[in-house]
Design goal:
Its main location: membrane. It is a multi-pass membrane protein. The protein is mainly alpha-helical. The chain is built from eleven helices and no strands. The longest helix is centred in the last third of the chain and has 35 residues. It is extended, with a radius of gyration of 27 Å. It starts with a helix and ends with a helix.
């Protein structure tokens, strides 16, 4: 009994057995090797990396204090940025909702429409907003229109994807009950599907509007309107105090947008 008790006392509980530990070590080693290979492959110029703290300090000294002389123009550009985000979000709704309807498995008319809807959603999400902006600047020229279309084409995939998932998760019993009474397709959508997805719809649209405000601030860097146009001009002319003012204004705009979206969520949800 004493030997048995001593043997039990010497046993140590381990979460993984020997085989599991070896697998985990192998996965960790493979991960480290992949990261090392990736870092070497991108050919980082390390002297610049080590000198980055000095460059940041020098840039910060040149940006301080901020220059408020162009504050009126900055405020107007911020309002233009909000307009871009708002108009793009509103236009997105009219495209994303039909696409989400045909991309949901329980509402799509047929398999061809299902794959068409999902292709549109994937294509929209696969292209970054800046790439969309470059494309539309090349087509329509620099300006607000290119920015609105870029934000809209990017937002279609976001809103359509989440709305499609919300439609797929609805309770089928109200739909089947209305179909059993001989209700038309439009009435089934209006009275059985729409009421169930409205909370998700408001939450998704408000969230996307908040994201669009953030994305609209950089569209001007490629000529698509908004505060980014002034920011790019200030950087090109080395007007670093003006750059600091613009960056502060962008942060304030994002904070205001965050507060507004939080208020809207509390009102509609």
């Amino acid at each position: 009994m004493v030997d048995r008790a001593g043997a039990l006392a010497d046993r140590v509980w381990r979460r993984y057995d020997r085989k599991q530990r070896m697998i985990r070590y192998a996965v960790l080693l493979a991960t480290v090797m992949v990261v090392y290979w990736a870092v070497r492959d991108i050919d980082i110029f390390w002297p610049w990396v080590w000198d980055a703290p000095n460059q940041i300090s020098s840039l910060g000294a040149r940006m301080w204090p901020p220059d408020p002389s162009r504050l009126a123009a900055i405020v107007n550009a911020l309002l233009e940025t909000v307009h871009i985000a708002t108009l793009a979000t509103a236009l997105t709704i009219f495209i994303a909702l039909p696409v989400s309807y045909i991309a949901a498995q329980n509402t799509t008319p047929n398999r061809a429409c299902l794959w068409l809807g999902r292709f549109i959603l994937v294509a929209s999400r696969s292209v970054n907003t800046i790439i969309w902006a470059l494309l539309f600047v090349a087509i329509f020229g620099p300006g607000v229109l290119a920015g609105i279309l870029a934000i809209m084409f990017r937002s279609v995939g976001f809103i359509g994807k989440l709305m499609g998932e919300a439609i797929e998760e609805i309770d089928r019993r109200p739909v089947e009950a209305m179909e059993a009474t001989g209700a038309s397709k439009a009435k089934v959508i209006a009275y059985a599907i729409v009421p169930q997805v409205m909370p998700a719809f408001f939450a998704i649209v408000i969230l996307r509007w908040d994201i669009n405000i953030r994305e609209s601030t950089v569209l001007g860097l490629v000529g698509a309107g908004g505060i980014g146009v002034i920011l790019q001009g200030a950087i090109d002319t080395f007007a670093w105090p003006t750059v600091a003012t613009i960056l502060i204004a962008i942060v304030v705009l994002v904070l205001i947008g965050e507060a507004v979206t939080g208020l809207l969520r509390g009102k509609v949800l």
